[in-house]
Amino acid sequence: xxxxxxxxxxxxxRALYPLPSPNANSNSNISTNANADRDGANINSxxxxxxxxxxxxxxxxxxxxxTTIPPRPDPDGQSEWIALGDAKKRVLGVPGYPRxxxxxxxxxxxxxxxxxxxxxKGMGLGVFxxxxxxxxxxxxxxxxxxxxxxxxxxxxxxxxxxENTLAIAVGRMRAGSRDAFMQLANCHNDEGPLLGIVRTNGxxxxxxxxxxxxxxxxxxxxCKIAARINHSCMPNIHARFDLASxxxxxxxxxxxxAGEQLFHSYCSVxxxxxxxxxxxxxxxxxxxxxxxxxxSPTSDTxxxxxxxxxxxxRRMSDAWVGKKASKKVDEGVVRELEEFRKELxxxxxxxxxxxxxxxxxxLRLYMNSGRIGxxxxxxxxxxxxxxxxx
Length: 390
Hints:
Blueprint: H1 9-12, E1 40-41, E2 64-69, E3 79-84, H2 87-92, E4 111-115, E5 125-129, E6 138-142, E7 146-149, H3 162-172, H4 175-182, H5 193-201, E8 203-209, E9 218-222, E10 230-231, E11 237-242, E12 247-252, E13 263-264, H6 273-280, H7 290-293, H8 297-323, H9 331-346, H10 353-368, H11 372-386
Parallel strand pairs: 3-7, 10-13
Antiparallel strand pairs: 1-2, 2-3, 4-5, 6-12, 7-9, 8-9, 11-12
């Protein structure tokens, strides 16, 4: 599930909604007590919200569990999580849980949230670098305000709709977190206010899932700061969810200059222009990044094929390394890869994991051809990128 922001007139006219009454459904008896050490599970068909121990994990596989992560007030913040089945048990069993959030790299805060209208008309708020940030550096780590199943339909019961189920979790939030959640964008006018906010701002958490395979078993998270990161088809940040700290780690996917806006792609970057615009249509804005405004048949082909080409180059580089010193790499091959690298950078694809694979292929060829100086420079760039997985 990709997320969007207030980037179009349709969205700007969307008013913020008050928290729905948990008693809106006459058949539900729902408590919204925000006590941080409470756990709630639907133990009958009326979604009755009952207290249990925060560390209880032996819930029924069919349960909808409302829990606060971590259970006690924490300086790093808390998340309200609607968990299904035994997902909670798996998280609480992760080595190191609950791990404190790491400190950001550098001596000063590296980002700020401010008006992004000067970057693109109607963009609203955005997140900007306040200083130069090296590739791979941790910009910030953040626990989500709310985490729910990607397949929100699993939250509905015969006696309670999805919106009422979300109201329980939002009602459990501390006042500041609840206010921050309600101030987020809602560009899904056909949804209830809470579900609309979730669908607009949710970041998929592939590292967290219920038993079984498939995206529909994963969860989606709504964050206070990360939700303000706008879209670009030329992303410059990398997000990874750490289960032990129950938080997103936002790192620089490439070097970022002071004043530059942080960008995340709400759609696959491997798509041509028309397909990207179709994927972004639900967010009610038209992307005006450099890749979109300068798109061409050549750039569309590059985006469709770059992952396949990189894999082919990787295999080729493996083969050359296998030949060791018996045969040097043809200089024409090295130049071909260097030109391809420039194309990827120009198209803004140097913030992808696939670009890192490309660097590995070039490094192998540099080493084989004896270009030690260039190899050393590349090794340093790759060392910075390795932190993206940390």
